[in-house]
Specification:
Elements lengths: L5 E5 L1 H5 L12 H4 L2 H4 L2 H6 L1 H15 L6 H12 L4 E5 L5 H5 L4 E3 L2 E8 L5 E3 L19 E5 L9 H10 L2 E5 L11 H7 L3 E6 L11 E4 L2 H17 L1
Parallel strand pairs: 1-2, 1-7, 2-3, 7-8, 8-9
Antiparallel strand pairs: 4-5, 4-6
Helix pairs in contact: 6-10, 8-9
Bound molecules: 2'-O-acetyl adenosine-5-diphosphoribose (OAD).
The site of 2'-O-acetyl adenosine-5-diphosphoribose has 24 residues, from helix 1.
């Protein structure tokens, strides 16, 4: 099948070799924290200090790392692929953007953004939020929260993602465990609409059997190889 439109789903495995911890597995972020203590609307209401401490630490860690070869390869594909392309990332870091990617959306939010719980205003935010600042737009006190989609909240831009999946000729999932829906179900949606499916991950994900092809390895090796292949076909 001739590939024109590509949807790429990325997860924490893509940023692992930049030095950001993934969520699951040994040493993962969820090993040291209970999701329900730091990543739910209830936790934010009950214990904002703990939630802010967790995300302040993530924001501080992000300031110390750089995009890796896999981010750079995807940015190159974004720049050079003549057909449709959308990178849907579950990652809340900005490493895709720092590598130069443009056609990207953050379905689980962004660490470098603050959301006002009172009026919905968003603003760029790079420092800590633990002092619980008020909103500059509506002036509500203590109202800024991390612009992160917590468990139990609706991921961002689902309509745009669904539309891209419906048009996709190729769906590629990179560095994600396939443990969190709705992202884990995108492979089935893409297949339903007739797309080819490819997984690039260190190990088989939870939904590995849904993919027509799986390539296992480190993102910094297998992603640049795949991008070369795609752009090589293009020039052939
Ligand atoms: P996970 O931590 O669940 O999965 C990371 C995946 O990356 C695993 O399958 C690893 O095998 C793989 N991996 C690790 N290192 C890799 C490497 N160097 N190269 C390639 N693959 C590698 O992270 P996500 O699937 O992104 O949500 O997690 C999904 C969501 O769960 C996150 O967005 C987050 C979390 O709860 C929110 O915070 C809302």
């Amino acid at each position: 099948m001739e590939v024109r439109n590509i949807v790429i789903l990325t997860g924490a495995g893509l940023s692992a070799e930049s030095g950001l911890a993934t969520f699951r597995g040994p040493g993962g972020l969820w090993e040291g924290h209970r999701v329900e203590d730091v990543c739910t609307p209830e936790a934010l209401a009950r214990d904002p200090e703990t939630v802010h401490r967790f995300y302040d630490a993530r924001r501080a860690a992000l300031a110390t790392v750089e995009p890796n070869a896999a981010h750079r390869a995807l940015a190159r594909l974004d720049a050079e692929w003549p057909g449709g392309l959308l990178i849907v990332t579950q990652n809340v870091d900005d490493l895709h953007e720092r590598a130069g990617a443009k056609r990207i959306l953050h379905m689980h939010g962004a660490l470098l953004s603050a959301l006002c719980a009172a009026c919905g205003d968003r603003q760029a935010w790079s420092g800590p939020m633990g002092h619980r600042p008020g909103c500059g737009a509506c002036e509500a006190a203590d109202s800024l929260r991390p612009d992160i989609v917590f468990f139990g909240e609706m991921p961002y831009e689902m309509e745009r993602i669904e539309a891209a999946l419906a048009e996709a000729d190729l769906f590629v999932s990179i560095g994600t465990s396939g443990a969190v829906y709705p992202a884990a179900g995108f492979v089935q949606t893409a297949r339903h609409y007739g797309a080819e499916t490819l997984e690039l991950n260190l190990e088989p994900s939870a939904g590995s059997y849904f993919f027509a092809e799986s390539r296992l390895g480190r993102a910094t090796e297998i992603v640049p190889e795949w991008v070369e292949e795609m752009l090589g076909q293009q020039g052939a």
